[in-house]
């Protein structure tokens, strides 16, 4: 027996509960520290001789202090040997010894350009310094000058010196260090040094130069940083809520009339990054997959990816670059890995703009994806 009235449907609500994901964040705080460098290498003195004729051994010992992630200073003692040659006869060469203490200021270009990160494998510094070059043991030049004058009655070395001679020296250069452990690194250093005319006993009317290439080790003492790990507030990822209402009507035969009411909100996923980093971690990659699945299921939707950076770290220019690269990284994964068309993806970057999405600075190392 058929019922005269049939309730055709009941209200149906599909609600996706918010995804609560705790974020564990590790933060590094720079600690001022001392370091020691020992290096050995070679020197090429600038002169009239062909390259290699004026190559001599060189060594350096330095002790320094890193004041902050960007600037340090050191007392360096560079020493060993320099050479000179006569322009017309390269067989007439002489060498002498020297010790050159200098005070150098170092600029950590890796941190200046890329933001502070103590876990990098490589760091690059540029430096500049001033000091004194103390020359001694110039006997070969004096012997050559005496013999030449006796034979030709002419003094070829018009700025000949004897005994100990101190001169002002200025130097600049760069080094690259490979961090083997937290307190030990191997490095290469290149430096240029300039002194007043007469360092090689010859009068040229311009400054004298010598160039050093050194390899060696750097030892760091004490803590370079302190590390803290904390859990930040959970993030909420909203899901689309769609309500379908089926309205019953009374008819002779069973008729279904379906009314669909969409209450759809933009789909949002927040993808977080480590400090000074643009690589998506395995943990955050699952969120990119969620966004890709949504876009595949909704081919008419587009997504806007906005990158941000923590304004408490780095400079405005660095943060603008970081935020742009973070957004571009997410967009690239959506296109290359999941096949989302490029015309469905809009990339924006906000850097460390005042209107940051989270009150906690650490949370603003993020790329936020929102559909239209």
Summarize the structure.
The chain is an alpha+beta fold and 372 residues long. It has helices at residues 109-114, 139-152, 282-297, 316-336; strands spanning 12-14, 19-30, 33-45, 55-66, 71-85, 93-108, 122-136, 165-179, 184-195, 208-221, 225-237, 241-247, 257-263, 268-272, 303-308, 345-351, 366-371.
Task: Describe it.
It is a single chain. The chain has 372 residues and is of the alpha+beta class. The protein has two domains: 161 residues, 2-Layer Sandwich (60s Ribosomal Protein L30, Chain: A); 191 residues, Beta Barrel (Porin), CATH 2.40.160.20. Helices cover 15% and strands 48% of the residues. It has four helices and 17 strands. The strands form four sheets. It has an eight-stranded antiparallel β-barrel. It has a four-stranded mixed sheet with strand order 14-17-15-16. Strands 1-12-13 form a three-stranded antiparallel sheet, with no helix packed on it. A hairpin with a 4-residue loop joins strand 4 and strand 5. It is elongated. It starts with 11 loop residues before the first strand and ends with a strand. The relative contact order is 0.15. The N terminus is likely disordered.
- Rounded mean pLDDT is 85
State the helix count. Answer: 4
What is the end-to-end distance?
Answer: 51 Å
Q: Give helix % range.
A: 10-25%
Q: Specify Rg, calculated over alpha carbons.
A: 35 Å
> What can be said about the biggest beta sheet?
8 strands, antiparallel, barrel
Specify the CATH class of the largest domain: Mainly Beta
CATH architecture assignment name of the largest domain: Beta Barrel
Largest beta sheet: what is the strand line-up? 3-4-5-6-7-8-9-10
| Unreliable residue runs | 1-20, 257-261
> How many independent structural domains?
2
